[in-house]
## 1
Amino acid sequence: MTRPLQNRRILLVIGGGIAAYKALDLIRRLRERGAQVRPLLTKGAQEFVTPLAAAALAGERAHTDLFDRAEEADIGHIKLARDADAIVVAPATASLMARMATGDSSDLAATVLLATTLPILIAPAMNVRMWQHPATQRNLATLRGDGVRVVGPNEGAMAEAEFGPGRLAEPAEIADAVETMLAEARPASGFGFLAGRGATAEAASGPLAGRRVLVTSGPTHEPIDPVRYLANRSSGRQGHAIAAAAAAAGATVILVSGPVAIPHPPGVQVVPVETARAMLAAVEAALPADLAIFAAAVGDWRPAETRASKIKKDGSAPAPLALVENPDILATIAGRSAGRPRLVVGFAAETDRVLENARAKIARKGCDLIVANDVSPAGGVMGGTANTVHLVGRDGTVETWPTLDKDEVGRRLIQRFARLLDP
Ligand code: CTP
């Protein structure tokens, strides 16, 4: 049986952070799937893992520095930048991301990343505050704009006893993202960073060719403590179907998704998040976009406090759970004076008075169109595979569609949005 990454050559750039130890496991995962892995360690990475360990696991020599003369004579940085099918940066530290975003070439890793035309996947890992800092988010947006793929970071407890996005994606997730990237990369004509965007020749000519589309999907998880969270029944099926349809229509699609159990749609850049606040940050980082579709079932409230340790039963009555309101992502983006996507579409999940509530919602949220659906338990929409939607316009007009499979709803919605963008 051929393995999914059989004979694919990966240059693995290991950045300097506590998560560097997971890069060793990543080498194993990639090799299990058939890839040949050539490790390149930054100076910082070598504080956490040794080139010897990386080389032993890879079965290849590990590269370390631009000024290692023996290495330069053996294999120059330009050759390193070309002699692979893809480059994976894991962990991508704040500093490596900054160097990539600004085109800095002060060490071997940065030089190779600047000199390459190969598809690049980064797996960021850093302290949550560093991740959320506007400078890092700016760099992230720049890198995405350059066609760099991103996997993670995940949310969870951090080395510094903080909680939030910043943990390196799991090695298996990174290996999955490598497979997706290589499956979508165009053959080596033109620049790798364009190939990394996942456009296919067929899609490049679709009704959304050249457009950038942002989709939110899935539920959010709002942590109570490290083991408990508040969530809802959204499966992400409708949002994911819309993202898949947009990619098939030729768009560059960024899908910001809460935790779901369904596969990533093909040809789409997925940004996994857990909380509403992380979703808002990821959405803002993904802008600009021509079209933004907010299909996620965002938790309206989160616990006022997330405990760093598991809350224990101590025999007395359970502590009341105080909640605070989450930011409204749709209203925030629709209300932007600068950089508002041309077409902003919201969803309305209602259990009663669907149309009346949807009409009120469109005004309250400031979006251009609402896709309203009845999510009463009897209909089985939440978590199910079919959907009955009503399109509600700003002027209150309503168009009711028959009950359709969510994939078909996704395709029809995308056709409609493409016509609205390009009448
Ligand atoms: N939405 C959002 N951010 C939130 C809440 C909702 O972006 N914090 C978006 C959803 O993605 C959807 C739309 O707003 O596109 C409406 O979501 P819905 O849950 O139906 O409405 P709510 O704003 O939560 O209002 P209510 O709970 O009163 O129905």
## 2
Amino acid sequence: MQIIENQSLKLYNTFAISANARYFAEIHSEAELKETLQQNTQPLFLLGGGSNILLTQDFDGLVIKNSILGKEIIESISEHVLVRIGAGENWHQAVLWTLAHDFGGLENLSLIPGTIGASPIQNIGAYGVELKDTFHKLEAMEIATGDIHTFTKADCQFGYRESIFKKALKDKYVITQVYFQLTQANHKINISYGAIQDVLNSKNIKNPTIHDVSNAVIAIRSSKLPDPAKIGNAGSFFKNPEIPQAQFDGLKQKFPTIPSFPSEKGGVKVPAGWLIEQCGWKGTRRGDAGCYDKQALVLVNYGNAKGAEIWQLAMDIADSVEEKFGIRLLPEVNVI
Ligand code: FAD
Ligand code: EPU
């Protein structure tokens, strides 16, 4: 394991922001991770695929790039199968691996960028499914001691774009392995998200398989989300706000077309993309920083935007949404 000084992070973040790390180490095993942590270089930043971060400055510490690999079938119990996947594995490639084995459960989460190890951090979700629906347990190394601890689903305290690793245990653990419980028969097809149904109808697919669902999700995502290989971005920049029913009722009177979804917390979830579009930001551009023209919730770097410029645009968007709707948008992306 080698520690590199002054490493450019431009190729390590999907926003393609130019910023340097004072020190940078890529680890391939728990042993290498432990050795790196024992050097006690501070501050630390744990990097997966860099698809949910915005770098607003150089990082004056050690960036640890997690490249622990491995995909294994652990056990098979009647209709279910337990698989273990290394934290450094690419999320979408891992999903394709489960599909190649005809294991069901992750198909709605196809094509999400990033690594397996970051997926529990914000309990990734898309098209009616969240990580927590198939998550079994994870192993993580405690930064302070180098000990490996196991976290069950209950331990992780998953919520909408939330987990204990963003709250009480923030920056305390490095996730090393994630276990998923998948189906190997009687798959539970989830086509509750309207757009999936539309794609299946257009192809005249009446009884979709997990492969059909995956293909539909890939088609929808490709049509409205920018490919980070072509336009820098980190997916949704803000979370969809969850507000009390009474506040929503007031907004509905003033803005009758405001869309909404039920929130798991009991209130109402309002699509931030709609709020941003109503404020006139969709498709606008300030230098190389912009608000994507096909999806207003996605901020983009058209070339050489600085992280601070994207952040300024994000704050101006949040201010105007707050002024018009009285709702403060909170970033979903991790700002460094
Ligand atoms: P990084 O960006 O590298 O890190 C994210 C956070 O996790 C950081 O705080 C980091 O320190 C921490 N972290 C990373 N690895 C570890 C580890 N092993 N142990 C402990 N902490 C760690 N997200 C969704 O939920 N749903 C979507 O539909 C979705 N669509 C997207 C579409 C696009 C085009 C893009 C660019 C992003 C999208 N995202 C989506 C966001 C992103 O893909 C996820 O958040 C993903 O899980 C981030 O993985 P990563 O490896 O790139 O994490
Ligand atoms: N909308 C607009 N204008 C826009 C964009 C959206 O009006 O420009 C409204 C529409 O009413 C639309 C609704 O918002 O029906 C929902 O839009 P979409 O289906 O595109 O989903 P989203 O709420 O914008 C969320 C996740 C995505 C995830 C999709 C699909 C969050 C913060 N984002 O986006 O996750 O892929 O649903 O499930 O929850 C990510 O986290 O990075 C991400 C991309």
## 3
Amino acid sequence: MSKYFQEQIETASRDEIIAIQNEKLVKQVKHVYENVPYYRAKMDEKGVRPEDIKSIDDLRKLPFLSKDDLREAYPYGLLAKPLSECVRIQSTSGTTGRRVVAFYTQHDIDLWEECCARALVAAGADKNDVVQVCYGYGLFTGGPGLNGGSHKLGSLTLPMSSGNTDRQLQFMVDLQSTVLCCTPSYAAYLAECVNERGLRDKIKLKAGIFGAEAWTEEMRHDIENALGIKAYDIYGLTEISGPGVSFECSEQEGMHINEDHFIAEIINPVTGEVLPDGEKGELVFTSLDKEAFPLLRYRTRDICVLSRKKCSCGRTHVRMAKPMGRSDDMLIVRGVNVFPSQIETVLISNGYPANYLIIVDRQKNTDSIEVQVEMTNEMFSDDLNTIHAREKKLVDALKSMLGIRANVHLVAPKTIERSEGKAKRVIDKRNLYQN
Ligand code: DLL
């Protein structure tokens, strides 16, 4: 079995990739200018014409698109094909209530599913595998994306959707699933249940493809050990298609971005200046061959770093690090930038499970941050002194990571609500961003 789903393109030389991107970009800009009045107005305002875009070197002449544009143009304002040629919508929640709605032609669905098939092959899957997809189905892109990728690959696909954990475990055992696709938080919960119910010897999983939310290396190790699998990261967003915009390979060191379909840039989130590879900033995508919903220079708000270091898997496409947080999810507590992933790293490296809740509040103009953390069964004790000592140790560890004090409240095992999809880990009671 091949190590690649589409070897030629996945291992193309840099010159070949640039040639493909140049050609597709010129065509795409013309398509968007002619068919999307909303973006045409933005280009006109910036004084840039489609003829000015001759290669990817001209990309930075184009205006950015942001979530605000999506909200303003909702629902049809960024559509570049007649509705009669669209065959699907997918959707995700927006930042302030209005949902993001993305449209797909059949061509767009095919490309997207191929991207997901590439991810599955990179995780070691082939047509002999049994792929259990427990991302949500429906409007969320996770289920349909991985389902489509698994079909393209010819694997036996179990369209489980999220939730109903008893049924998930039953199918995992009875049908001997080999590849698990779900959010990392649900994978951690499934792993917990597998071990509690003594099913570890009865399952055949070898790999997991986990994404849709941030997770740490520590969480990866925990899931890998608990299920006896290799856990691969997968990234994507509804606006740009869904899962499979990028995916991890056997190296497990960054996710290859499908550069024949998407151009990635890193910008300074404040000034919009394009940063060189290797610098941390906001990830921006241009979709090169989507027909119905082709976003140019879309600001993801994900904070990330790109690397062009040669990868031993043979793939040549640029790699993105795990997103380090979102420029809009970043909490600013007493003036200090705090990313939930920093807190998770401290918790897991101190032996706690990734079941926690971060509560930020403001009283008399002073911010406070509380982290509720679940104890494991082994840690759980009636002795308050022991618990207080543990809490103090975590407060100190968090202080040295974050630079500010966070209060810690240890809670009994199984008291923090488990998530079947994306976990909600932050409650910000300050309501700083209400419109
Ligand atoms: O979460 C698509 C997806 C489904 C990706 C299944 C992977 C697997 P949205 O609901 O539009 O789409 O959310 C997109 O989720 O901008 C990131 O902030 C976050 N995200 C997605 N994948 C990862 C990841 C899907 N691997 C938003 N690591 C993105 C960290 C991720 N964050």
## 4
Amino acid sequence: MIITLKKEMSKAEMDTMIHELESVNSVAVTVIPGETFNVLGLVGDTTKIDEKHLRANKFVENVTRIAAPYKKANRMFHPEDTVVSIAGGRVKIGGHEKIAIMGGPCSVESHEQMMIIGEAVRNAGASMLRGGAYKPRTSPYAFQGMATEGIKCMTDARECFGLPIVSELMSADKIDEFVENVDLIQVGARNMQNFELLKALGRIKTPILLKRGLANTIEEWIMAAEYIMAGGNSNVIFCERGIRTFEKYTRNTLDLSVIPIIKQKTHLPIVIDPSHGTGYWEYVESMSLAAIAAGADGLIIEVHHDPERAASDGTQSLKPKRFAEVIERGRQIAQVIGRDI
Ligand code: PEP
Ligand code: MN
């Protein structure tokens, strides 16, 4: 970190600042005197230093961070890819592992629905089953999910078809229910910066699928992962699901550029959600293939046998046959880049 100081700062004031930086943050400070400014060069772990706090000092002209503000997620300190192991290793995501395909409905609607879709998703070649039992809906009058009963439909489907399950947790008071029943816990876009929830997830060991917030930068998203990891849970998988832009032809703008960026900056796996990323089933296949070509470690796709009657997100849900075709074509692309599904 580099701190530029105005010349008006007295020697005593500068010494106090240096002493505080060295004693509180254990960094080594080098002073570079200049004609118009004095510059402090900080070496060591600067993650705990708040730039805004420094800028509050009237003699501070500028603060430049050299290293990223995240440590545990940073590839610099952990060069090898992290492989996240789900359900005792039945599915592994990241590194050179197979590309994981998760399919299933937006919302769990009934036991029968999960039996139909669970079987179809397994037969299509998916490795995990998705389904929301607690739904974050824009309207309080919209279907809110089957809650505990929905989780039971998911675990029954897992029992029948042998696919580990992924489901969204909305609040910390349901953590025990999820730790007991769910193999991969999804943090939805709307909760990406629910810091108390992230801290609570840091205290468990269950893997987390961390969706990117509706309008969050990549750095904010990595910092959300850092919250979970700082608490002790390093089983974090990123999930890009599109961000808010001015574009109206799609529900969200799917930012596939995050794939190489997340891989460069962090060692964690990245999964793409082309369903929420586009909002229309017609665009799901091409974005799925593009994501695989770009190096995604997995896909999470909404699948429904009767999308017209789906309780939520029918417009972006694939029918099982189409889902199977996406996996088949995806496998061909994967093999071109030396991976498999
Ligand atoms: C979902 O997966 O159904 C969902 C609500 O996701 P997101 O948080 O990405 O909107
Ligand atoms: Mn959905």
